Amino acid sequence: MDQNIIKPRRLSALAFSLLFTYLLSFVFEGQVFYSLTDYFKISSSTFIFTAIVSHFVGLFCCGFFIKTPKAAKNAMLYAIGLSFVSSIPFFFSASFLWTVSFIVCALASGCAVAAWGCFLKSCTPKNERIKTCADVLIYSNILMIFINLIAIYRSPFIGLGLSMLALILAGFFTMLLPITGEQIAESSDTKAYLSLKEPMLFLILFVVIITINSGLMYQVFNPAFEHLTWLTSWYWAVPYIAALIIMRNLPGKVKRSFFLYVGMAMIMASFIAFMFLDRSATSYFVVDTLMLGACGIFDLFWWSIIGEMLEHTDHPVKIFGIGLSANVLGVLIGGLIGSAITSFNLPSANVAVIALTVVCITIAILPPLNNQLVRLLKSHTYLMAYSTMGEKQQKNIVSTAKVVDLLTDREQDVLRLILAGKTNKAIAAELFISENTVKTHVKNIYSKYNVSSRAEIISTLLKEQIPE
Q1: Cα–Cα distance for residue pair 328/48, rounded to 1 Å
Q2: Domain containing 210: what range?
Q3: 116 and 228 fall within a common domain
Q4: pTM to 2 decimals?
C-alpha cells in the first residue's frame, strides 16, 4: 500500500488507534487480561499494579532518548514487535513468565505511545490536532468494546488474538508513516521554549489530580457493579465515546472551557449517585454515564492541549510522553486509594467525600491553569493566523514592525521564518547558511526586541497586527 493513498493525518491516527486498542483491551486494566486471569483462576491485582508502573516509566522516559523522527518511528516499530512477542506467553498457563512479559508489554507500549507524539505533530496540521486526538480515542474505544465482548462471551484467547492482530496492523501502518528527516530536539533552543515549562507543570498537576477519580472508579465503582457483566462489558465506554464525539464536533465559537465545569459537576453527581443509589442496572447507567462522560470531556481537553503544546517545542516525544504519563500516575494514585478503601471496607459516603475533595482541588487549579494556557496558546493562535497570510503580507509585518534598532535584511529573513514556525535547522537549510549563523541572527533579534523566546517575539510582533 502506498502511503500517499492515505493522508498522513489519517495514517498516523490509524496506527495509533490500533496500538491504543491493544493497550486498552489488554495491558492497561484491559478486559482481555481480566478474562485470562479469571480463566486460570489467579489474582490480577499484582499484575495490574506492575503494568501501570511500567507503562508510566515507558511514557515518561521515552522522550529522553528519542531525538529524531526516524528514531521515533523505529521506537514504535520495535516496541510493537516486543509487545507482540511478550503477549504470546498468555496463551499458556500462568507462570513467572507472565509477570516478566506483562512488564515488558506495558513498558514497550508506553514507549510506542510516547513516540507517536512526533507524528501527531508532523502529520496533523496545528488546527486539526483536537480532531486527531478525538478520533484516536473514539476508534480505539470502539474497537476495545468489540474485543472485550469477544473475550467475555466467546474466549479470552480469541480476545487476546484480536488485540495482537490490532498490534500487527498498528505496526503495518506505522511503517507507512512519513519521516520528515528533521531533527526533533535542538538543545540550543531550550531557552527559547522555557515559556512551555510552567503551563506544562500546571497541566500535569491538573491531569494527575482529576485522574485520581478514574483510579477510584476502577477500584470502587467497577467491583460494586461486577455482577452486571452483561451490561458493564459493553456500556462502560459508551458515554465516554459519546462525550468525545460531542466535544470533537462543537462549533469553533463555542467555549470549550465551559464544559470543564460541566465535567466537574458530572463527577460530583456520579459519586453522590453512587453513595445514594443501589447496585441495580439503572443505577449503573446513571453512575457510569456521569463519570465516563466527564472522563471523555477531560481527556479530550488535556490531550488536545498537549497536541497544541507540541507546536511550541522541539521535543514532541518528551512532551507527549510526560503529558500522558500524568494520566497514568493519576490512575495509579487513585487505584491505590481505592484499594485502601476496599481493604478497610469504608462506606460509600467516605468514597464520595474523597472524590468531592479531589474535584474541589481541581476546581481551584483551573483558573491558574487557564491563565498559563491562554498566555502560551495565544501565541499559538497568532502563529496560525500568520501562517494563513500571503507572503507579501507576512513580509510587510516584519518590515513594518517597530524595533529599537533596525533589523538587517538577513535578520528580517530569519525573523520571517521564525514566525512561520521553523526551527533553527530548517531556517539554515532554507537560507543556505550554517546553523550557528542562524543562532547568531536569532540572538541579535531577541536582543533588539528585548525578548528571550520565540513565543514572546511572536506575541510581541503579531498582537498589534492581528485582531484578537
Answers
A1: 12
A2: 192-388
A3: no
A4: 0.77
